[in-house]
């Protein structure tokens, strides 16, 4: 059992689980907007997420962003390097337009993690911006990039999907904000630091309402999509209700991050059988 737990913890710590969340959101875009996602883009985002998230989580704390002394982190670094190489392989098949989008999102991620100038702060330290930057990057990566790859027009449905995805990720980040309240520096000015845990949870609960009702602004929405979104809406509301400052170790890192995958499976079932 200890070996299984170590493998499971490494799976979470190496950002593989969160990469599956990104992969699931890409395929949600495939279903809700009605086109086939390029498999090279899907795997590029999966492996790129592993490398990128590990860099943000561990790299910025390592000397020169490369050297790490901890053996456990070295193993994560090795996984990150392998993931980056695989991502670059799949990236070879992406169009120039997609790469422009990737560069923009990577640049935003870099500004989030790294200071612009020596002795300067990164965007992550600019009060309250953290979760909005992350949500923007996720929405761009899982909606806009697939549209660019498929050479689809940026219709109203695409923008509605993008805003809905932004809100979805924003809600998922709230349990992490509350969990990290004891560790975040005061100058981060996260939502729980500014407004308290209760008000932050209320904010997340209110966000779940436009998350659901936005789908009815689309020109085309299937009953299966509406049912799946309704179930996810209820899950997000329940998530805000049960989220607390004291959390089980796996509450945010596994269960919250698994909601994206669950939504994908719901959509597959709903659109197939309804």
From TrEMBL:
Keyword Transmembrane helix: yes
Residue spans crossing the bilayer: 7-28, 40-56, 76-92, 98-117, 129-150, 162-178, 198-217, 223-242, 254-273
Keywords of this entry: Membrane, Transmembrane, Transmembrane helix
Keyword field contains Transmembrane helix: yes
Name the record gives this protein: Conserved hypothetical membrane protein
């Amino acid at each position: 059992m200890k070996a299984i737990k170590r493998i499971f913890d490494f799976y979470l710590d190496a950002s593989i689980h969160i990469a599956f969340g990104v992969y699931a959101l890409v395929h949600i875009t495939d279903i809700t907007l009605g086109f086939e996602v390029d498999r090279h883009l899907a795997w590029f985002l999966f492996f790129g997420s592993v490398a990128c998230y590990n860099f943000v989580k561990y790299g910025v704390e390592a000397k020169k962003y490369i050297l790490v002394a901890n053996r456990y982190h070295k193993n994560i670094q090795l996984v990150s390097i392998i993931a980056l190489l695989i991502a670059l392989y799949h990236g070879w098949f992406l169009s120039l337009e997609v790469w422009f989008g990737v560069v923009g999102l990577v640049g935003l991620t870099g500004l989030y993690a790294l200071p612009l100038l020596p002795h300067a702060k990164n965007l992550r330290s600019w009060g309250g911006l953290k979760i909005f930057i992350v949500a923007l990057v996720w929405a761009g990566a899982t909606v806009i990039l697939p549209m660019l790859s498929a050479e689809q027009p940026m219709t109203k449905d695409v923008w509605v999907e993008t805003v809905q995805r932004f809100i979805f990720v924003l809600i998922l980040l709230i349990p992490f904000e509350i969990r990290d309240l004891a560790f975040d520096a005061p100058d981060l000015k996260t939502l729980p630091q500014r407004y308290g845990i209760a008000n932050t949870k209320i904010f997340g609960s209110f966000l779940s309402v436009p998350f659901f009702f936005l789908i009815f602004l689309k020109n085309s929405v299937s009953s299966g999509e509406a049912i799946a979104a309704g179930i996810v809406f209820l899950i997000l509301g329940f998530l805000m209700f049960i989220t607390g400052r004291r959390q089980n170790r796996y509450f945010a890192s596994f269960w919250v991050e698994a909601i994206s995958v669950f939504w994908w499976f719901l959509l597959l079932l709903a659109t197939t059988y309804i």
